[in-house]
Automatic annotation (TrEMBL):
Naturally occurring in which organism (per UniProt): Motiliproteus coralliicola
Protein's name according to its UniProt entry: ABC transporter ATP-binding protein
Record InterPro entries: AAA+_ATPase (IPR003593), ABC_transporter-like_ATP-bd (IPR003439), ABC_transporter-like_CS (IPR017871), ABC_transporter_ATP-binding (IPR050763), P-loop_NTPase (IPR027417)
GO molecular function, one term: ATP binding
PROSITE patterns: ABC_TRANSPORTER_1 (PS00211), ABC_TRANSPORTER_2 (PS50893)
SMART domains xref list: AAA (SM00382)
Domain ABC transporter: 5-234
Signal sequence segment: none
Alphabetized Gene3D superfamilies for the sequence: P-loop containing nucleotide triphosphate hydrolases
Superkingdom in the source lineage: Bacteria
SUPFAM superfamilies: P-loop containing nucleoside triphosphate hydrolases (SSF52540)
Length: 308
C-alpha cells in the first residue's frame, strides 16, 4: 500500500538561525493513527504546520496523497483537516454558520445532514445557533474539531487536541477518532498525555530538537525498549543479599523487605532458577508481581539518552 504522506529530507530553519526541523524522513500509512511525542520545542507543531502548508520548508519534499504540498497546494490541502493548538474562530458567528462556511472553503457542496451528524457527535447540536463568543473553552475546542472535519478529509491532524479540556470532551474525541479510523481516515496527533498515545496509536514517533529519533509500531517499541521487573515482597527483611545470588540482577529496597529483579523482556528471565535458589537460602517470598515499562518511561529514557 502506498503511503498517504511521504516526507523526505524535510528541514526548517527560521531567519534567526533556529533550526526547527532537521532532515526528517517519514512515511505515514493510510488509515493508521500515528502519535508524535516530544518535549516542548521539539518540532512537533512545525512538522504538522509544514505538512499542512502553513509553514514553508527550507529544504526537502512533502507529498500528501501523491500531491506536492508546494506545487499542488490546493489538492494536497483539501485532503487534510487540522485541529491546531490555538483556538481561532469567528467569535460573532454561530456554530452552524462557522462549520458550514469551513466546508464551503474547500469547495464542498452544502450537506446539512452531514453537518448535523457532526455536531451531534461532538455534543454541539444544542449549541448550533449560539455565537462562538458565548461558548466555554471546551465547547470552542469542539467547534474547532467540527471545522476540521467539515469537508470530510482523508487525513486529520490533532495538535495537542485534549490539552486543557474536560474529561467528557476527551472521551468524546477519542470515540470519534476510533470511528474515523474505522472509516479509513489517517490520524496524526501530538500529545503530552502519553497514556492516550499508548492506548490509541498504531505507531509512535519520537521527535526531539527537530530530529525524528525513531518511528516504531507501538507494540514493537515497547517490546524492544521496555524493561520488566519482578517485585518480590519478603516475609522477613534482609540486611544484605547472600553471595549465592550475585549472578542475578537483584536489588534490595524498602528497608530490605522487597527484592527487585530486573530483566530484559527480549531475553530469558531466569525466574525459574531464581525462585528455587531463594528458597534454598531460606528467603521466604510473601507476594510477588511483575512491572513492565510504560510508554512514558520509555519516552523519558529516549529523550534523556539523546541529551547525554
Amino acid at each position: 500500500m502506498q503511503p498517504i504522506i511521504t516526507i523526505e529530507g524535510l528541514g526548517k530553519t527560521y531567519p534567526n538561525g533556529f533550526r526547527a526541523l532537521n532532515s526528517v524522513d517519514l512515511q505515514i500509512r493510510q488509515g493508521e493513527i500515528l502519535a508524535l511525542l516530544g518535549p516542548n520545542g521539539a518540532g512537533k507543531t512545525t512538522l504538522i504546520s509544514t505538512i499542512c502548508g502553513i509553514v514553508n520548508p527550507t529544504q526537502g519534499k512533502v507529498k500528501v496523497g501523491g500531491y506536492d504540498i508546494l506545487r499542488d497546494y490546493r489538492n494536497a490541502r483539501r485532503l487534510i483537516g487540522l485541529v491546531p493548538q490555538e483556538l481561532s474562530t469567528d467569535a460573532f458567528e454561530s456554530v452552524w454558520a462557522t462549520v458550514s462556511f469551513s466546508r464551503g472553503l474547500f469547495g464542498k457542496a452544502p450537506n446539512p445532514d452531514y453537518i448535523e451528524q457532526l455536531l451531534r457527535q461532538l455534543s454541539l447540536w444544542d449549541k448550533k445557533d449560539a455565537k462562538i463568543r458565548e461558548l466555554s473553552g471546551g465547547m470552542k475546542r469542539r467547534v474547532m474539531i467540527a471545522k476540521a472535519l467539515s469537508h470530510e478529509p482523508e487525513i486529520l491532524f490533532l495538535d495537542e487536541p485534549t490539552a486543557g479540556v474536560d474529561v467528557e470532551l476527551r472521551k468524546d474525541m477519542w470515540q470519534m477518532v476510533r470511528q474515523l479510523r474505522e472509516r479509513g481516515v489517517t490520524i496524526i496527533l501530538t500529545t503530552h498525555y502519553i497514556e492516550e498515545a499508548e492506548e490509541m496509536a498504531d505507531r509512535i514517533g519520537v521527535i526531539d530538537h527537530g530530529e525524528l529519533m525513531l518511528v516504531e509500531q507501538k507494540t514493537q517499541l515497547m517490546a524492544k525498549l521496555g524493561q520488566k521487573q519482578l517485585r518480590l515482597h519478603l516475609q522477613t527483611p534482609l540486611e544484605q543479599l547472600p553471595e549465592q545470588l550475585d549472578g542475578f540482577s537483584l536489588e534490595l529496597c524498602e528497608q530490605g523487605s522487597m527484592l527487585l529483579y530486573n530483566y530484559d523482556s527480549q531475553q530469558p528471565s531466569h525466574i525459574a532458577e531464581l525462585l528455587p535458589l531463594l528458597a534454598q537460602q531460606g528467603i521466604e517470598v510473601k507476594d510477588l508481581h511483575t512491572h513492565e515499562s510504560s510508554l512514558e518511561e520509555i519516552f523519558v529514557g529516549l529523550v534523556k539518552g539523546a541529551k547525554q
